[in-house]
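ping. complex inputs:
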Amino acid sequence: DGGITQSPKYLFRKEGQNVTLSCEQNLNHDAMYWYRQDPGQGLRLIYYSQIVNDFQKGDIAEGYSVSREKKESFPLTVTSAQKNPTAFYLCASRGLAMNEQFFGPGTRLTVL
Amino acid sequence: GQQVMQIPQYQHVQEGEDFTTYCNSSTTLSNIQWYKQRPGGHPVFLIQLVKSGEVKKQKRLTFQFGEAKKNSSLHITATQTTDVGTYFCAGLRIQGAQKLVFGQGTRLTINP
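pong. complex structure:
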């Protein structure tokens, strides 16, 4: 997991503002994922990308956007359209030859 | 859509007691993975099961994959305080995109 970094660890924003969460990996993994975790709940998939310049919606993509311009980077933008953005956001990556996902340390977003 | 149900949601045990969490999928899975998330941390991969009826052991942890590849369990023998955390199962679908569907997790707390 040391190969995936997310910044910042804690983020505060005012309601109505867009915010971008960073995710960088140096594992040379092709696939990257964004999950949202709410208290007492499992991980829900927001977006995923299996190759540069391509990404797909997950189960809860509404109010979020992503880009995959570089293999190492998969930033997530939480837009003002997301009704309940306060949550713990986890980024993960996976090599194509494996199924195991490696998670970053997460970003805890609080919208005031 | 596919669902992966995990029970119980919470489990509190005395140190030294055994612990089991169960995972059930609404559809057949290609494989199932287990992750552990320590309090305040991020999920860390424990193991992957692929074959029908497969049983794998890691020291005091025993993982099973059902014959129909729709259910799985994780059993911890003689729990220790280091076992505290939330345990997630995650199923990989046979058809569709290579993405995991996570159970809600079982949060294990231990009385020393």
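The interface with chain A takes residues 1, 6, 9, 31, 33, 41-45, 48, 88, 90, 92, 97-105, 107 of chain B (CB under 8 Å).
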